[in-house]
UniProtKB/TrEMBL annotation:
SUPFAM superfamilies xref list: Homeodomain-like
Coiled-coil intervals, chain numbering: none
Family annotation (Pfam families): TetR_N
Record-given protein name: TetR family transcriptional regulator
Single Gene Ontology MF annotation: transcription cis-regulatory region binding
Domain of life where this protein originates: Bacteria
Keyword Transit peptide: no
Organism: Mycolicibacterium moriokaense
Keywords from the named record: DNA-binding
DNA-binding region(s) in UniProt: 27-46
Domain HTH tetR-type: 4-64
């Protein structure tokens, strides 16, 4: 197995462990065991647990931001933009299902530099949400900053709920979640 493949296996195992147990609840030995490698190998590739956690945060943030940003190129700022984002989010998460959980649904680590790194990654993703919701809102004639702020919070909460539901129902694929979101969105939009 090539080094890059081993690194990916370690990052996958570490992301899942950190997402499910939090930074303080995980030891490098747990990650090594989950990845099927030795603790010295994990340490030689990533250094101490703090550095491995940082690598997981950075990979998760880059994965989500890069996939959504690429999907939004040329997309008009209308309500259909939401489906593009949902599709991109689940495309990003399908190979790395615990990225969102790591970034949004785990306790902030008690180490200041790690907390700062987590907030940096959240801010990158939240920036996409703020920008996207703002563009759609302006296009729909919504200009009240409080309404736009509320819509942004609703949007990010909706994304978190979709991801949590998906992880709790592993028989559903990422494509299923996009279809389900599209169907529910259409029903809600057409219900009067």
């Amino acid at each position: 197995m090539q080094r890059a493949e081993r690194e990916s296996l370690i990052l996958d195992a570490a992301t899942e462990r950190f997402a499910l147990q939090g930074f303080t609840g995980v030891a490098l030995t747990d990650i090594a065991k989950a990845a099927g490698v030795t603790k010295p190998l994990v340490y030689s590739y990533f250094g101490p647990k703090e550095d491995l956690y940082t690598a997981c945060l950075d990979r998760a943030g880059d994965n989500i931001v890069d996939t959504i940003s690429a999907a939004l190129v040329g997309v008009p700022p209308d309500i259909d933009m939401a489906l593009v984002v949902i599709d991109a989010l689940f495309t990003a998460l399908e190979p790395h299902p615990h990225d969102w959980t790591l970034l949004y649904d785990t306790p902030v680590p008690p180490v200041a530099v790690l907390a700062d790194r987590l907030h940096k990654q959240r801010k990158r993703i939240d920036g996409l949400a703020v920008n996207g919701v703002h563009q759609v809102a302006i296009n729909l004639g919504v200009t009240d900053p409080n309404d736009i702020s509320l819509a942004t919070d609703i949007w990010t909460s909706t994304l978190s709920a979709l991801v949590r539901w998906w992880l709790a129902h592993p028989s559903h694929t990422a494509a299923d979640m996009v279809d389900r979101s599209r169907s529910l969105g259409a029903r809600i939009a057409n219900h009067r």
